[in-house]
Design a protein that fits this description.
The protein has three helices and eight strands. By secondary structure, the protein is α+β, with helices and mostly antiparallel strands.
């Protein structure tokens, strides 16, 4: 009986967490298709900064790849970026790795800070700190970095 309750609780937690992670993705896709030049959506991600920002990656009818940064609470498109003048997340990671060769890479994602689209890189630095570092979509430094001391 206890085992059944435990398994039921774990299933409920997994379902709840999955639902929270995907909350707003359908609405973000619809808003992007209605309010931008996007005709096709490749994926939708969420960046949790000061407010949750939904980031829709897709392409226009003529094939131009774009990113749309959306505030669903205001039902508003904050910014649309053509991918043509930007570097890819993979290229950003390689550029970063050259400047921090002894760091342990964790993740890269699109973000939105100070009304600007950015890359957010997370990694463990040489001093064993967990770091959130930000770069513009063209790969330039963005004047924001957070480093947290890790406990052993």
């Amino acid at each position: 009986m206890v085992l059944l309750l435990g398994v039921s609780f774990l299933v409920w937690m997994y379902t709840s967490i999955s639902h929270d992670r995907e909350a707003g993705q359908t609405e973000a896709e619809a808003l992007a298709l209605a309010e931008t030049d996007l005709a096709n959506v490749e994926n939708v991600s969420t960046y949790n900064g000061n407010i949750p920002i939904h980031i829709v990656k897709g392409s226009t009818e003529n094939g131009t790849e774009q990113l749309a940064f959306l505030d669903l609470s205001e039902k508003k498109v904050l910014k649309v970026e053509d991918m043509s003048g930007q570097i890819s997340p993979e290229a950003m990671r390689q550029q970063w790795q050259q400047s921090c060769a002894s760091c342990q890479f964790k993740d890269i994602q699109y973000g939105y800070e100070e009304q600007e689209p950015v890359f957010q890189l997370t990694y463990i630095d040489e001093q064993n700190r967990y770091v959130f570092d930000y770069f513009t979509l063209s790969g330039d430094n963005f004047d924001q970095r957070f480093a947290f001391k890790r406990t052993q």
